[in-house]
Amino acid sequence: MVGKQGGVGAGRGLGEVSRFVRALPALLIAGGCVFDFTTPPNFTASPLFAAAPLIAAPLFSLLSTLVTGGIATAAVVGLHLYNGTSAHVESVTELITMVTVAALALVINRVVRRSGRRLASARTIAEAAQRAVVPVPADRIAGLHVAARYEAAQADAFIGGDLFAVQDTPSGVRLVVGDVRGKGLGAVEAVAVVVGAFREAAEQESTLEEVAQRLERALTREGARRDGLDAFEGFTTAVLAEIPRGEGVVRLVNRGHPEPLLLYADGDLAEIVPAEAALPLGMGDLGAWPDRAQEYAFPTGATLLLYTDGLSEARNAAGVFYDPAARLRGRIFPGPDELLDALIDDVRLHTAGAATDDMALLAVGRPAEGQQDRRRTVSLVRRAGRQPAGRQQRRTSAGSGRAEP
Q1: Under 8 Å between Cβ of 269 and 288
Q2: Nearest Cα to 282, choosing from 300, 261, 262, 257?
Q3: Closest alpha carbon to 199 in 292, 295, 132
Q4: CB-CB contact of 71 with 50 (8 Å)
């Protein structure tokens, strides 16, 4: 069931674990005291006391780590005085060990804090780079509701080879979602090339086909200046879309990309399949034929969903791929934002948080007449009397309008 229950439950569980870990130094000191009081003098709880400041070091401030080390050391001294063993050689050794561990915990705390500041700085720079290369579109563009998400598979990563862009132009709202082959800085450079070329071409070219050709030429130039494998195999899968003002249609050019989905207001869903397959952008040397935009009905209340293969190729522990059409069919969402939030939560539930590829999502809704700009979030609902499981899959092609099951 698509929804946020998995995400909320996982967040609550992580919060409980975090609270337990932060309470662990105090629990270790208390447990050490209980152990020492309830066992003969020749038994020692010094490992518990030594562990307390070491656990506090990466979690707490320098002062809190110092206090934890001081309390643990005082507990060791007090227990030896209580047991009358403070003059024993073993007791002196334990005290020296405890002081050494407490000092080491302070050093660890400083190293962790310094590394944390560097990581925070790197994340800020990475986020700024992403916003510069792949900026988040406005919530409302030319009367359309727009939502976009970028989910990086790698923890603390903000940018990769997936991309999206939305541009309000004289020809209508134009958008692109794409996936650059490869990873790392090379992929980020290609993303910058594609997005930059799209924004310029979307304003200047009169047709969507011409926009696609501009992107093709831009990637060809990019590949020519590279050396080695990237120059030979570099390509980008992409879907380009154009939504003219007031016409109730959407035009698409699909260059080897996963098929977009059209979610209707009543919960029906259609996969938008191109009439003929086309090579990804940047592979024009292998075959050339003119791009042909295909037109589909885009009624009020419907939402167009574009995504990269990080969504459709997300696998669970059994190796089963995530099927967005099957998961979304028969569901109704208040708007694009709620659709993407629910979809991301459902993918995390499907993969148990172990996604292996970045995921870019772009949803564009055509609001019904009188619909508010920002809709109130409501629970996901299933269309009454319709079950997605076992239904014949619907696919629509050019000129067919809204396909029938």
Answers
A1: no
A2: 257
A3: 132
A4: no
- DSSP alpha helix (H) spans, 154-258: 184-204, 208-224, 229-233
Name 210's Cβ contacts closer than 8 Å, sequence gap at least 6. 201
**Rounded CA separation 109/62 (Å):** 6
Contact 374/248 with Cβ under 8 angstroms? no
Query: Would you say 278 and 291 are in contact if contact means Cβ atoms under 8 Å apart?
Result: yes
205-244 tens-digit pLDDT: 999 999 999 998 888 887 666 655 455 456 889 999 999 9
pLDDT digits (tens, 9 = 90+) for 93-148: 888 888 999 999 999 989 988 887 777 666 665 565 566 667 788 999 999 999 99
The more confidently predicted of residues 161 and 349 is 349
Q: Give φ, ψ of 242 to 5 degrees.
A: -140, 125
What's the farthest any 2 CA atoms get from each other in the chain?
93
Looking at the DSSP assignment, which residues form a beta bridge with residue 363? 147, 305
Q: Distances in Å between the alpha carbon of 167 and those of 8, 197, 211, 212?
A: 34, 12, 12, 14
3-state SS assignment for residue 288: coil
Task: Say how far apart CA 284 and CA 206 lie, in whole Å.
Answer: 21
- pTM across the whole model: 0.65
| Alpha carbons 301 and 364: distance in angstroms, whole number | 10
Residue the block writes with tokens 């946020």: 4
| C-alpha separations of 334 from 96, 175, 182, 348 in Å | 64, 22, 36, 21
pLDDT in tens, 260-290: 999 999 999 999 998 887 888 888 767 666 7
**Which residue's entry shows tokens 């967040």?**
11
Which among 380, 345, 339, 342 is positioned nearest to 362, based on CA atoms? 339
CA 405 to chain centre: 33
What are the backbone dihedrals phi and psi of residue 371, each rounded to the nearest 5 degrees, phi first?
-70, 140
